[in-house]
Amino acid sequence: IFFFFFLGALRKWVLPGMSNILLLAREPVAIYILALAFKKSWFNGNMYILIMTLISFLAFFTALVFGHANMQVAIYGLRITLLHFPLIFVIGKAFDTSDVLQLGKMLLWIALPMMLLNAMQFYTPQSSWFNRGIGGDIEGTGFEGANGFFRPPGTFSFTNGNVFFWSVVGVYILYFWLNRKLINKKVLYIASFALFGAVSFAISRTLVFQLVLSVAFAFIALARKPRYLKSAVIAFVAFVLVFVVLSQIGIFSTGIEAFTTRFDAATETEGGGSVSKGIVDRMILGGMVSALTEGVDLPFFGHGLGMGTNAGAKILTGETTFLISEGEWGRLIGECGLLLGLGMILIRTILTLNLVRNAYLAVQRSNILPWLLMSVAAVNILQGQWAQPTSLGFTVLLGGLVMAAMKQNRKMPIKNRAIASTTPHN
Predict the structure, then answer these.
(1) Which of 327, 424, 412, 419 minimizes the C-alpha distance to 102?
(2) Strand, coil or helix: 422
(3) CB–CB of 302/334 below 8 Å?
(4) Is the CB of residue 91 less than 8 Å from the CB of residue 404?
(5) CA–CA distance, 312 with 74 (Å, rounded to integer)
(6) What's the pLDDT tens digit per position in 365-381?
(7) pLDDT tens-digit series, residues 24-81
(8) Lower Cβ count inside 10 Å, N or C end of the chain?
(9) Can you name the residues that pair with 144 across neighbouring β-strands?
(10) Euclidean distance between CA atoms 126 and 141, whole angstroms
């Protein structure tokens, strides 16, 4: 997992000359893990994997016969569902609640160094070492934000990795504020400070929306389990105080000002006034309706598996671009055609709904961890951009953590065990 978190750092700073090779460094690890899982018969009876694998191979062959006919591109597209999708269930099998909590504690330890890195990337020019791009690119890897500042990528290859990282950290901070006996309080306080600092530097509406969504999930859990109400009030007061203090400190207020400028400019560009038109439509709807309507005019088997990825476009055209669609549903239908594309979408939809249902049932059994994790996982399992390696990696990790967090934990004292044990059949 931590290899995944710091893979971008290897490609940017440590081994820039091997950045292209490292892009596929996770695949051998995935193959090895899947081989062990297959040996343990962990996939027996898993209809998600069985159906997704069948559709993926059909899409692979139709890409070669009716689509772009490029074997390398088709294999690159196939690896997404053949190698990475099953890892969701492997993590769910191999981990339990104590493992999920241990990961959260380690992320909170990392939070402050990551925030400091974000600050350096925010305040230094794109030509600086901190902003060095993939392969040592001196043009930098930040993404334009506002007021002359760029969105920091952290240790990741692109800024979306930084947004994912802080979204997950935000979930764990919420959880530990509601269960303060499970964490060193100093670590929790420092991580909370780091989160607010990182938000000020991120210049990301998506990150703010994701944190708000996680808070909304927490309130739903509180409605079902009022015993967390006292902890929630304490957390709310602490968050307000931290925000007020940070907003008065110049190093953070500059970032907040840049975010406000970015928010206003984006809202005006998207028609003005409606946050839902901008963020919600892009994050949740994600071009779903247009993908379905436009899919009718595509070739029956689409343009070919892998063509909608940036790497596939680079192989086919020599340029990194979106040949099919930037939205995930549009990519799936554009690559595989309406029939096979909808098949993949249906699997992801059923899995998402099943996880949401079971996570909510876990709340009723006093286990709110999987429910809070679903606040980040749900959108990304349903229509996250799996063609992008970082997005794919975080989706796989989150899906697996949700499943693992539902399992009864035998490594902790009985009074702290997660009672929920309902998971999708895997």
Answers:
(1) 412
(2) coil
(3) yes
(4) yes
(5) 8
(6) 889 999 999 999 999 99
(7) 889 999 999 999 999 999 999 899 999 999 999 999 999 999 999 999 999 999 999 9
(8) N
(9) 150
(10) 7
